[in-house]
Amino acid sequence: EPEVTQTPSHQVTQMGQEVILRCVPISNHLYFYWYRQILGQKVEFLVSFYNNEISEKSEIFDDQFSVERPDGSNFTLKIRSTKLEDSAMYFCASRDYTTDTQYFGPGTRLTVL
Amino acid sequence: SQQGEEDPQALSIQEGENATMNCSYKTSINNLQWYRQNSGRGLVHLILIRSNEREKHSGRLRVTLDTSKKSSSLLITASRAADTASYFCALGRYGGATNKLIFGTGTLLAVQP
To answer: Which residues of A lie closer than 8 Å to B, measured between beta carbons?
Structure first.
């Protein structure tokens, strides 16, 4: 069964460094998302992406964040200058347009020191 | 608030018993999706129920939706130790190219062998 994949599974970085989180959505999906979950808290929407542009972003998704679909398969989330409070699990998801189901990847645990 | 509120926050049962989790919300929805999350792991999609549906089944799972009361319930029958996880409801709102999910706070289910 097709699945969303994410790399790396765990990323440790120093405060102020740039990180790029990578995702490969399910191949025939057109709608992509990033969510995050701070430890012990609920899953929060960050950004949605369709037709090579952002369709909606939350207030969390400030100028330090950017997303890109650099080729036909990858979908990336970049954090330009990480802060301690960016430490969280980041989930990529892609949506099946015919059923509205969102399929999530296994997540990248980002630790900012 | 827009998010779903699950109750109970935590539930402990014996293997073989049924587990019922509830989700209440305040906004209008297009669909409601239930996810399972094992500790520190990814989100696994369980079932989607549309706003014009009242009940859906999938294996040992039964989901109901009452849009007049703005509530949904997830029933797991004949529970197993492997069902131990956090369960989240996620509200899907019609939003064109967005269709972001708004997650609830989750119910932590512990199934004792």
So the answer is: 31, 33, 35, 42-45, 48, 50-51, 55-56, 89, 91, 93, 95, 99-107, 109
Query: So what's the pLDDT on residue B111?
Result: 97
A26 and A2 in contact (C-beta within 8 Å)? Answer: yes
Task: Test A103 with B40 for CB contact under 8 angstroms.
Answer: no
Average pLDDT over residues B62-88: 96
Domain of B91, CATH number, reads 2.60.40.10
Cα–Cα distance between A48 and A14 in angstroms, integer? 27
Which of chain B's residues have a Cβ under 8 Å away from the Cβ of A42?
A: 3, 88, 103-106
DSSP strand pairing (B101-103 vs A88-95): unpaired
Q: Burial level of A69, CB count in 10 A (0-12/13-18/19+)?
A: middle
DSSP A64: T
Cα A20 to Cα B110: distance, rounded to the nearest angstrom:
35
Write out the residue range of the structural domain in which residue B40 sits.
Answer: 5-112
Which residue ranges form the domains of chain A, and what is each CATH number? Answer: 5-106 (2.60.40.10)
Residues with pLDDT less than 50, chain A = none
The answer, for B47 touching chain A at a CB cutoff of 8 Å, is no
For the segment B26-38, the average pLDDT, to the nearest whole number, is 92
CB atoms under 10 Å from CB of A4, counted, come to: 23
The answer to whether A46 touches A64, Cβ cutoff 8 Å, is: no
User: Hey, are the CB atoms on B100 and A91 less than 8 Å from each other?
Assistant: no
